[in-house]
Amino acid sequence: MSKYLITNKIGGGKTLIPESVRVNCAFDQGWIKGRVFDKKCQLSENYFWDANGGAFVVGTPLVSDVVNVAEYIYRDFEVSKINKYKREIIGMWAAFVYRGGKAYCFNDYWGLYDICFHSSEDNTFVVSTSLADVHANVPDARIDEYSFVMDNFQLGAFLGDTMFKEIKRLKREQYLEITECGLNLKGLSDYRYKYTFQNKQQTIQDIVSYAKKLSVKIAARFGKTAVAMTGGFDSRLVFGILNSAPNNDITLVHGVSSGTEKEDMEIAQNIAKHYHKDFILEDWNNRKGFNLNDQFNTFRIVGYYNYVGLGSKQCYSEYERIGKGYTFYQAGYFCEALRLREWAEQKKSSTFSLTDYVDNYYINKSLKECYANYDEYRNYLVEKYREQLKEIGFTGDENRIPMDYFERFRWIMSRYCDSRSVMMLNSFQFTFPIMSTPFIHEIVLSLPADVIKGGGFQIELVSAMNKELVELFGLHSHRRSYRIKNNKKIPLLTMKNVADYCFMLLPFIKPMMFAVYRKFKYDSTNVRHGVLDEFDQLSVKVPEYLDLTKYPEVPYRLRATMIGLSCVQNEK
Known about the structure:
By secondary structure, the protein is α+β, with helices and mostly antiparallel strands. The chain has 22 helices and 21 strands.
């Protein structure tokens, strides 16, 4: 199943974004009502109801030797066992349990599968895994300025927040208790895996051993699998894990659009040919022109907070095509923490400060020209990040944060970014990021900066899964091409790599070159102003504190949000 909606509102929360997915089931216990929706392309058994209550689990949960995860939770349920479920049930999922006259909502280990909720002063409430459906039932919801800007210009969100003041998102360490009196937000005790890094080889062995066992479980549960393949090591690692299972039925797919490069496709094709796998090209061309009706229809399927493939219904049609042919879909999400960011690598110090991180790494500086409240927004980010230091287990001086904490710090936002795409894909078929699996990712986040610097650790990990994936194929990542020697990336002589080398020697010219590029690409083709003209067709306007005529490129995410908001408003 793909999503659920729970409410005590009169009418049962019938205000929904119209869907092409089916209602799997509905229940009415008098004071609480709910509906659960199927995935667009796959049926799910994760629903159970008897005379005393029931449960359902949406998304993609996986437990060894368990087909109906909802029944498993319901039969065994105690509030004290929620920690156990979060550790034991891997994947991206959100659960609902009704038992003993009370209901409970909680989600996966990392809180990746959204549970959004709103409670009014009269104790009426709406809970859903779809932000769009909650918003549709909260007619007076106001945009939260800073969250709105962050979501649309930086694809980020702090834990617990949405872009609306009156709608919150469940944090990973929380659950909802629901009674006839309304919603109660409860906290969970610590349930996290504890992993202490010892040495690189032992860590690689631990990941490989766990990943191989996981691949067998995935093959047994889901069968036919499509792996989105590029020329990089993220998707290659995922393929290596899945392909380690005996007789795993895998097909490689590669999306082609105006922004993709032939080097990626060629490497993906060569890998498919070498391992005798079928290879499918997906048409992701999302630049074939703008059609407002098509946009409304796509958002009715996946919700306006998902930005994948924005601009054309073609992209969603391709996901539907793959979803009908393959039960499980996998991509290289959550692998980036295996290598240190360039910004961190280039710093001469072994520490960084909170303000340095915000000012020079995270914040979108292009906003300074078009966002009236930029300075206040920056201060907001600093304060919110200060609150997150405890989340990553750091209690020292915020001006001297060890670089070993960098990826954990970055991951506060990056997990939200990656999970947007996976939430969208879950509306079509079964999927969760393999590398987000609790045990594996806790290991990844424990890795010291020196270990992941330069990307050597990831190369060794891929090699440990399958040496051929490193030895027989080149690397193309972020428009750069490399060959691999002694577990190190050696840049090939390309225009992109030459430019990078020049920027490294003369860093002050990089901002100027990017400014010229943006002016040439966007101003000369009127892309920016074309998008602004599209906004004139919508009933929901860009907030007044944003002057997008001064922004170098209007993000497609903002287009998605504006259309989505308009869609929701028009359906109310």
